[in-house]
Write a structure and sequence with these properties.
alpha/beta; nine-stranded mixed sheet; four-stranded antiparallel sheet; 19 helices; 15 strands; 31% helix; globular
Amino acid sequence: METVKNILFIMADQLRWDHLSCYGHPHLETPNIDRLAGKGVRFDRAYVQSPVCGPSRASCYTGRTVFSHGATWNRVPLPIGELTLGDYLRPNGVTTAVVGKTHMVPDREGMARLGLNDTSEIGIKISQPGFDPYERDDGLHPDPLLAAKGGKLRYNDWLRAQGYDGDNPWNEWANSADGPDGEILSGWHLQNSNLPARVKEEHSETAYMTMRAKEFIEEMGDAPWLCHLSFIKPHWPYMAPAPYHDIYGPETFAPIHRSETERKNPNPVYKAFMGMEVSETFSMQGARETVMPAYMGLIKQIDDHLGRLFDWLEETGKADETMIVLTSDHGDYLGDHWMGEKELFHECSVRVPLIIYDPRPGADATRGTSSDALVEAIDLVPTFIDATGAPEANHRLEGRSLAPLLQGETPSDWRTSVFSEIDYAFYAAREALGVDVSAARGYMIRTEDWKYVYFQGFPPQLFDLENDPDEFNDLGQDPAHQGKCSEMNGLLLDRIVARKNRVTMTDGEVHGLRRDEDSAGILIGKW
């Protein structure tokens, strides 16, 4: 099959799969993302490898599960030996750049051991998880954190050039609102979420990142590229610029998705997460109602800007030679299941949108269709390798190329379950449980009809998705379902032991070494 010249890899941070109109939201209209789905394939059961920004993205960039690549939380460095998208595609002449967020931390200890620094060519690529950092911006810049980074932020420089004063316009303008008496109200406080940001819409983070992605593509000319347009929103601070801050009212919100049943004898780990401050806040009357207009408005803003970008790609003819992928790094509880943030394994947290437009004729048969195949975030790297014709790395990659599904073929051996995991050592929930840092691990395996969650040292969770799609009734401690728990535990064990840890030698090389002992004069066991 012919190869794809370019890839536009779009990721929206903390975007729920069910908050797009092509996935069924009745009021949040996203016509431009819907248009992309009309040209490509909408995957209805796509899952992330971890419902946390950093580890999820590391899996998207490496094609490997979280405890394989080792970047198990937001501030845990990706080990220096792990290969990422740029490492796979750059030898094929594909410039692999990021515009926006990666939430990855460089392995500075490993770099120092090898005498590398951020200013060298190789050091830059390693410290930016294999990407060329065209416009790297993780979108978390409160004053203390920005000061710790040396106060440097390109977006801030640009905002000041547009007339926004201050040392940190990101904080004081893009993510703050004006109070009734002229005071500045921070977007970090959820009670301010339904107010308009002080920045003009055309100067907001979403507008800026879209502009920078277009500039990158223009600068590339006819050379092949992968542009990772990684939007910072709708992740918190939940603050949208006018007019997006109040487009949506209570009548447009999806109903709250929780039950009192969930708070009766809950799994201990789930109970500890429900007891964290963010969950208690989102469970308060009025909190969700204040946040939802901003969350939905930020999604609508992303769709509007993508529409202009898609139009430009079509006008310039680049759409005909560019694979376009849209997904998210995880969802957002938004008060569902008595939770805030993400972290655990309910569908609203671990399931994400995934839409892929493949411009090649081989994908014509699937345009505008949906797929219910169980797919994972680690499938993206092998898909991109497949699309660009880069050398395969199946001894290292734990995902599978989605190319057959894009061409209307479902391999007979396609997976029958999906897998996700979390290192919750960094949360107050672990401290409340008294769990050792190294034991704070959770794993999910989900099949067609069942979801099983194993927390080391605690009873499991089990959900009958056929009869309880809401995931309200945890059967993990029900004596009548211990057989199913054992069966699901076996599936989970099989998945865990199937990780690929021999990453420095291909399967072909293994076969070769197995057969060269006699010729090398190494005679073992011969009489």
